[in-house]
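Continuing the batch. This is chain 6 of the set; chains 1 through 5 are on the previous pages. Same settings as before, nothing changed between runs. Recording input and output for traceability.
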Amino acid sequence: MRETTYPDPIIKWAVALLICGICVAVSYLWIDRPIAYFVHNELLEWRGIFDVATRLPKVIGPLIIACTFILGVRVAMRRRLTEIQAVIVLSALSLAAERR
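Output for chain 6:
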């Protein structure tokens, strides 16, 4: 009977990395770029809405920080956070780390 040999883990990682890189390049060249050109050319009259959407983090940031402060007081009072409250706290921490 023939014994099966498997490639080394480093070779598996290298092949997986190569396949991932090829997929990213193909996606960028044949999917992302044509869609970006189409959106840029066809949605010029909607540019105002997209400009407003890019300003949302400036509005939401202080709101998330205020919620985190309120939830921090709740934790200091030894009350447990619900799942959604924990998500809000983690979002605020992510926002704070991103602004550094």
